[in-house]
Amino acid sequence: MGIEDFLLAALLGLIGGSFASAVSYRLPRGLPIGAARSACTSCGAPLGPLDLVPVLSWTLRRGRCGHCGASVSWRYPLIEVATAAAFVLVLWAEEGHWLPAALLMVIAVILMTAAVIDLEFGILPDKLHIAAAPFALAYRWLLDGTPWPALIGAAAGYAAGLALLYGFKLVTGREGLGRGDVKFLAVAGLLLQPEQWVAFPLIAGVAGVVTGLLWRASGRGVEFPFGPALIGALFVCLLLPGNTLGALGN
Fold first, then answer.
1. Domain endpoint, select from 77, 93, 109
2. At 107, is the secondary structure helix, strand, or coil?
3. Which end of the chain is more exposed for a tag (fewer CB within 10 A), N or C?
4. Which letter, b or e, does each residue of 123-148 get, where b requires 16 or more Cβ atoms within 10 Å of its Cβ?
5. Where does the record place the Prepilin type IV endopeptidase peptidase domain (predicted)?
């Protein structure tokens, strides 16, 4: 595994991040994901190839549309750079094994899309859970040599989510998790090793506290989306030694 592998991973990550930014904008608004050309959200002008180069287009145009001059949100280059970093970390964790890394990279794009949508709209779309599930199952199948641990983990994750949802509501009268969070835990169960169910909620809890504090400090109220904390915790666990095919293959 050389520097060229990491450069390729970063390049693929920028492309994946561009896709994630587009889907995270279109999906919650009910816009077509693949049929329509990308266009400026201010003037509606179709974007050409030079407008779609990840990060570089936004930087060269100083964050403005080349057609109408309207400001283009920083969300686009930020998502692209974050996804590129995720791809590099995945390849590093998998020690250059491209097949399992590719599966995790696809999952990373889906998780990035889900996190952005939850931050902006407070929902985790079912379509993204459905999209992530086959790739998550394929990855664990490679890891374990059988699909059953993943399927059992998914059932356990979903059951844990329901227990938290209704248990918290029974005690406080309020729902502590969203329905999308519960379904996400089923997807997490496809990916996590049994022993990681100790670290996963602890990391998610800390990330949730930080997210909540930042959310309140920004004046957005008391209630905040917990999905990004769950997603971040899952990604951290997937990078831990022993969970990856790269670590087990040596």
1. 93
2. helix
3. C
4. bbbeebbebbbebbbbbbbebeeeee
5. 105-213
The total of structural domains in the chain comes to 2
List all residues 6 or more positions away from 110 whose beta carbon is below 8 Å from its beta carbon: 20, 128, 131, 132, 135
Q: Are residues 133 and 14 in the same domain?
A: no
In DSSP terms, 64 is beta-bridged to 71
- Could you give the CA distance from residue 32 to residue 173 in angstroms, rounded to a whole number? 38
Residue 213: closest CA among 224, 228, 204: 224
Q: How far apart are CA 132 and CA 120, in angstroms?
A: 20
Taking CA atoms, 201 is separated from 11, 53, 178, 233, 236, in Å, by 32, 37, 16, 8, 12
Cβ neighbours for 232, distance < 8 A, ≥ 6 positions apart = 115, 203, 204, 207
Q: What is the C-alpha separation between 32 and 135, in angstroms, rounded?
A: 23
**Which segments in the chain show pLDDT lower than 50?**
245-250
Q: Residue 170: give the domain boundaries.
A: 98-250
| 70 touches 92 (CB < 8 A) | no
CA 27 distance to own-chain centroid: 14
